[in-house]
Task: inverse folding
């Protein structure tokens, strides 16, 4: 029996990120107070074959959100494929309509296809909307990283979602 890969079942408003979209990513990042990434940082990430960079469009084909992360090789007791989310944001006037969920599920689908064991991320400890969003999606708090962020200086919470159970 053939099975449809999860990324072919996903929301049709999910698209890959190309150079022409970077200005929109930066604008959405600024309006949602993400840790700032320059166009150069995004361009560098685009060159990395392990990067996962997705955007979401509305009915007018305007960019309303994005997720950026990467598959990484990790593991103290032998190599393991993990992934990290660096940025996820939805334009302010589009929040709480399920866009973040759709973006995250598209990212997670790609991780599942690549047999990723864990997805990791850091989040400001004051960012309770994002923490609730991640917890709703199965992430757990693993540890605190003191003074991880600048402007303003703040601790990070390291969160993990297990996709594969460790042996
Ligand atoms: C985190 C973020 C991407 C969520 O996007 P979104 O489109 O608003 O989220 P969704 O509508 O898909 O929400 C999915 C679920 O997450 C939780 N959630 C999302 N926003 C929440 C909030 N402000 N307060 C509490 N729970 C929230 C809810 O459980 C929600 O389900 P529900 O609406 O059925 O209750 C968005 O808030 C954002 O862009 N924040 C600013 C950027 C940021 O901080 N990114 C994270 C950096 S680490």
Result:
């Amino acid at each position: 029996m053939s099975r449809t890969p999860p990324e072919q079942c996903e929301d049709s408003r999910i698209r890959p990120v190309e150079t022409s979209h970077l200005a929109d990513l930066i604008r959405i990042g600024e309006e949602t107070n993400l840790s700032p990434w320059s166009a150069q940082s995004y361009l560098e990430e685009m060159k990395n074959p392990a990067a996962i960079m997705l955007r979401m469009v509305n009915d007018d084909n305007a960019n309303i959100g994005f997720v950026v992360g990467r598959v990484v090789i990790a593991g103290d007791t032998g190599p393991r494929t993990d992934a990290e989310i660096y940025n996820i944001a939805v334009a302010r006037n589009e929040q709480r309509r399920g866009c973040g969920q759709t973006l995250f599920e598209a990212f997670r689908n790609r991780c599942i296809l690549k047999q990723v064991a864990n997805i990791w991320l850091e989040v400001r400890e004051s960012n309770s909307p994002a923490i609730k969003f991640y917890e709703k999606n199965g992430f757990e708090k693993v540890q605190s990283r003191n003074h991880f962020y600048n402007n303003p200086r703040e601790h990070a919470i390291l969160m993990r979602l297990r996709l594969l159970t460790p042996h």
